[in-house]
Amino acid sequence: MESVFDYEDIQLVPAKCVVNSRSECDTSVTLGGYSFNLPVVPANMQTIIDEKVALYLAENNYFYIMHRFDPKTRLSFVNDMHARGLIASISVGVKEEEYSFIEQLADAHLTPEFITIDIAHGHSDSVINMIRFIKNQLPETFVIAGNVGTPEAVRELEHAGADATKVGIGPGKVCITKVKTGFGTGGWQLAALKWCAKAASKPIIADGGIRTHGDIAKSIRFGASMVMIGSLFAGHEESPGETVEQEGKRYKEYFGSASEFQKGEKKNVEGKKMYVEHKGSLEDTLTEMKQDLQSAISYAGGKELQAIRYVDYVVVKNSIFNGDKIY
Ligand SMILES: NC(=O)C1=CN([C@@H]2O[C@H](COP(=O)(O)OP(=O)(O)OC[C@H]3O[C@@H](n4cnc5c(N)ncnc54)[C@H](OP(=O)(O)O)[C@@H]3O)[C@@H](O)[C@H]2O)C=CC1
Ligand SMILES: Nc1nc2c(ncn2[C@@H]2O[C@H](COP(=O)(O)O)[C@@H](O)[C@H]2O)c(=O)[nH]1
């Protein structure tokens, strides 16, 4: 295998600017026939998104994926979003009851625009069977399948009918898969993304390991169409989850979907809980992300997101830190 690297080891090389203002740069992206403001989607985790956040994102033209940890509410969620003229984007697992849920949607003639099959080890027959089942029952739905970390997995899931694949096994901030199992793309997620993107014939969603806004541009450079982010979206005013105060400072909880807190039991735990500093409003973060990405497009010498795809890059181990502590 070629040598590997991660987000902090890469710098993108600037090209001549073609705009007079960064506001001319267009950060929008198309997925599944829909256009969204940013190539960014908050993680489908219980401390990142709930119905209110989903509604805010959909109404403001951001892509969203609702989590699957309150399964009984999913049907009415799809109904409600459609009643408001918004897209419905939900998650499913692969257990028996999820097949019944897909049948219920089909029987009710409810077709979510997006369904994400969300399990830890997505390169599996269980995911392949679920992709085929959804495509058979709800042929119009755009199916995102994951998570995977290899080109073989991307090809196999695409071949089974997935419309996009989600790449990232273990790079997440609250992930402990890498320490508990020894497996994953943690520490080399960007190289894994590059490797997977070369094999892909459909969009890829890079998932996990984003620590700065510049990492979004780097993900685009290495082949992502969309970037899923957890920790940077945790801790907002609107984020679900408990707020605690310590020494006059406010913090909010952020826990893994495979953590004991999510599962309610200590079985196959591959996630942990942490507290992140309170960050203010989600709107402010999304605005800042947009401005930073517009700036990235200008450094790429273009006016659109695609310009970032073609820039040169250098590998300089730990280059962005330069000995500075930036967070
Ligand atoms: N991106 C990442 O790196 C990771 C993400 N997660 C997140 O945690 C949540 C829970 O994930 P998950 O535990 O898969 O969901 P589920 O608990 O719904 O499990 C899905 C099914 O896959 C089986 N399964 C889970 N892991 C494996 C494995 N390694 N090998 C074979 N079968 C397996 C489970 O059976 P059984 O439990 O009996 O094995 C179950 O039948 C998801 O939201 C997922 O995205 C979790 C870990 C890593
Ligand atoms: N190994 C685990 N990964 C998890 C768990 N819960 C979520 N995740 C993944 O992390 C990303 C978010 O990463 P971040 O670096 O942006 O915080 C999320 O989208 C999942 O793919 C878990 O319990 N274990």
Automatic annotation (TrEMBL):
Transmembrane regions: none
Question: From the UniProt record, which GO molecular function terms apply?
Answer: GMP reductase activity
Q: Which residues form the active site?
A: 175
GO BP terms in the entry: purine nucleotide metabolic process
EC number(s) per UniProt?
1.7.1.7
What PANTHER family does the annotation carry? GMP REDUCTASE
Instruction: Tell me what this protein is called.
Output: GMP reductase
